[in-house]
Amino acid sequence: MNLTELGYVAGWRLVRALPRPVVAAAFRAGADRAHRSGGGGTARLRANLRRVVGPELPEAELDDLLRRGLRSYARYWMEAFRLPALSREQLLAGFRLAPEGVDLLAADVAAGRGAVVALPHSGNWDAAGAWVAATGWPITTVAERLKPEAIYQRFLAFRRGLGMEILPTHGGERPAFDVLVDRLRAGAVVPLLADRDLSARGIEVDFFGARTRLPAGPALLALRTGAPLYVASLWYEPDAACASLEGPLPVPGEDSGPLDQRVRELTQRIADGLAAGIARHPEDWHMLQRMWLDQRGTGDGEPRPVSTPPAVTGPV
To answer: N- or C-end of the chain: fewer Cβ atoms within 10 A?
Structure first.
């Protein structure tokens, strides 16, 4: 077991064992240290938040937003480490989906058509998945396969222990996309993190006024299966992780053009929905990686810091 894996194991064990106020204070202090030290991840988050809020926001206010963003990210980690120790009742109480979203998903699952939900790296997406499973709805998603394998396996066990079916991006018995098609047709909820492309083969879109690439998976799944496609907004309130759903998004029909054109159009609609939610709660967007095409090759650090967990992501 290497030091990184030991850190995760210690996190899951110690954070669960200590009182929440003690742990929360420690994680908040860690976030403030990261803000003062201004490392690579902090610098990237600052640059990303500047894109969200625009050039008019004074630097002092951006700095305050950055501090709150790092505290939100620390809260995500603290709560993720504690999730496996929570009862079903605590999982349900610790996450709130807007009532109209609950009604939509309940109807989709009951009708056997399933639902695709495009998520941002905001709030607590693991708590959202655990809430869906605790509600009694089938849930399947995809996790990026990273090295070392031991850490990847621990995150698989963590999320599967919360009731989620997790498919690897590659190396599974069947392609992840094919399995997700089957799960949707059986009525499952399929949430996919959709605000960052990990494949370099994503769809180019406009996002906060600049070009980036987003994964094609959510759009392709909706087009292939006819399942409703929603865009989620995720954020924190003092007492709970929260979410709302936009949709179902209008899906272009076959008469509107070839498949690649329809995928581009639908992915841009996803980008617009994600941007609207992030703009409402920018402090809860945990994007510590380079995001836009004009940031590539700027030497601002590695694409993914070691502290980031294997992402639940979209199949492409």
So the answer is: N
Within 10 A of 209 (CB to CB), how many other CB atoms are there?
10
Judged on CB neighbours under 10 Å (0-12, 13-18, 19+), 99 is exposed
Quick one: how far is CA 127 from the chain centroid? 11
Residue that is written with structure tokens 């993190």 in the block: 193
CB distance 316 to 193 below 8 Å: no
Residue 309, CB-side half-sphere exposure with 13 Å CA sphere: 28
Place of tokens 């294997």: 310
60-123-269 Cα angle (round to 5): 95
* E strand map for the chain: 95-97, 115-119, 140-143, 165-168, 189-193, 203-207, 210-214, 229-237, 240-246, 312-313
pLDDT in tens, 28-87: 999 999 999 999 999 999 999 999 999 999 999 999 999 999 999 999 999 988 998 899
Annotate 183-193 with b (16+ C-beta within 10 A) or e (fewer).
bbeebbbbbbb
